[in-house]
Structures are given as structure tokens and as C-alpha cells.
Amino acid sequence: MNLKPLKGQHHVSAITANAQKNYEFYTNTLGMRLVKKTVNQDDTSMYHLFYADERGNPGTDLTFFEIPNAGRTYRGTDSITCTFLRVPTDDSLLYWKKRLEDHGVSHEDIRKGGTRMVLFFEDFEGQLLALISDQGNGGVKGGSPWARSPVPQEHGIIGLGPVMLTVSDLGPTEEMLTEVMGFRKKGPYRLEVNGENTVHVYETGEGGNGAEIHIIERPDLAQQRPGRGSVHHVAFRVEDEEELRRWIQKLKEQRIASSGFVERYYFKSLYFREPNGILFELATDGPGFEGDEPFEHLGEKLALPPYFEGQREQIEARIKPLNTKSP
């Protein structure tokens, strides 16, 4: 079957126990824009928050499901262990190091991660994140930071960078990425993060920061027990619904269990697990977030897809109001 290469990261979805603090951290501290305040379509009693560039371009979204009673995360293997966020230059990392210090955010020193400079830090729930410099980076273009962000646009976050997985057995995951999903293997690098590790790099499409998966093999670790601050899944970009349906057929032919077609209104999706159990999603680039809200007012009100609009009163009664005044 003749499929186009996946275009790179689409979004990463994680878990928070406190939507209000989550909003304040990702908008006021990290300067991202809340482009959609909606609910988890599989459980409408919880928020689903989308932070991104100025209009939620695909490849810039970091999203969160709110689970108020979520316990702590016990870090381990067979999980998504770090999400990288792209910033324009090496100088941007200097700006960010000072900003994180000023906001009391736990972080490490700026260092080299492969061929690029990175700055590891944690959010208020212990989720491991890293800012990665786009200086000298080719491949998938980044987005455009929001003009009303508290972070200067020349240093603003421009999208998702590599997503780091930690797995107990690299071989089957590599086979899934290269033989099924069309990723290309790149040279590894050494990185000290939770110990000294070899990081295996895979890229798709145009490559670069926005289209890489970084994998650490750690058979010595116990499996992660997810909770607040853990990552639920990573999604990869496909052009449109027609291409997504080709992927559904390919997985069926390969006898890989999947969700089949899932309507998410803002995009169309397909879910499946790689051999170590990490949840992957393929998601279409469109329609996007401006079908039910104008650009100027994205994320200001609770947005519901049309098929949930009839339940608005019941849904709003079950979720705690969220103050999302502009930072």
C-alpha cells in the first residue's frame, strides 16, 4: 500500500490532577496559548485542555486530561518519559533558564542532546519536559508564538520537539517504527537523564526536531505506574481523512489491533499500541480549532463538538469552572 510518510508529531497528551494550576503553569509560565478548553470525549466529566502556538497548528499541541484524584507517577519503562518543546535559538535557552529560575521551576543546566542544545525541567506535577533549540535545525517548520503571550515572541515555544520513549525491549518498537510506520533510523547519542543512556533516534517525513522519536532502552527498570504528570499518548500527523483511512487498512492488513476510525471533530484519529504497550495515535492535520471559535477568542469558553452540544447543561454541571482569563 502506497502511503505518504507521517509528517511528524501532531500532539502529546498528558494527565494533570489540577486544571487550574495546569492552566496557570502552561500559559503564565511557559507562555503557550490555551487554544481549546473542552472535555475528554471518552469521559465528558473531565477537562481536555489544548496548549499550542497562536492557533493550534498541528505539531504544536500539548494537551492535558484532568483527573482530580490521579495519584503520583512512579517513573519507569514502557512509557513516554520526556516531551521536548521547541524554542527558536540557543540564546532562547539562556532566556528560559533565567525565566524558570524566576518562576521557581526545577530545571537542569543547558547541555547538548545529540546535535542540539537542550534544557530539561519539570512542571509542577513532576512531568519531565525539555526545551530544545531550533538553531541550525532543518525539517518540519515550527509554529508561531502567540502575540499576547507573557514570553517575548523571539523566545516563545514554537511547537513540539522530539518525544522520548523509554522501553524495556528496543527491537520490537524499532521494527514497528521502521517497518510499519516508515520512520528512518538516525545515529544514536549519549545522554545523562536518570542515569547515563544511549538514545536511539528515528525520524519521519521532513525530519528535524518536529519529526523525531528518541528512545532509551532500559530492561532493568520496572514498568511505569502512571498518574498526574505522566504522558498518556503521542499522536503523529497525517494529511487528511483519506490518508488516515489508508493507515487503518494497513494496520488491519498487518494484523495490528487498533481503534479504527475515531471522530474527534477537531481532527480524525486512529489509536494503536506499539509492542511495549505505549499508546500511539495518528491524527489528521485538520479541520483544526477555529470551526467553533474565532481565532481571537480561542480557548475562552467551554467548547463542545456538535454531538455533545445537547448535553452541555449536564456536562457543565459536572466540571469545576476554570478561570482562563488571558495571562
TrEMBL record:
Protein known as: Glyoxalase family protein
Top-rank taxon: Bacteria
SUPFAM superfamilies for this protein: Glyoxalase/Bleomycin resistance protein/Dihydroxybiphenyl dioxygenase
VOC domain: residues covered: 8-134, 159-285
Pfam families: Glyoxalase (PF00903)
PROSITE patterns according to UniProt: VOC
InterPro entries xref list: Extradiol_RC_dioxygenase (IPR052537), Glyas_Bleomycin-R_OHBP_Dase (IPR029068), Glyas_Fos-R_dOase_dom (IPR004360), VOC_core (IPR037523)
Gene3D superfamilies found in the cross-reference section: 2,3-Dihydroxybiphenyl 1,2-Dioxygenase, domain 1
Ranges in coiled-coil conformation: none
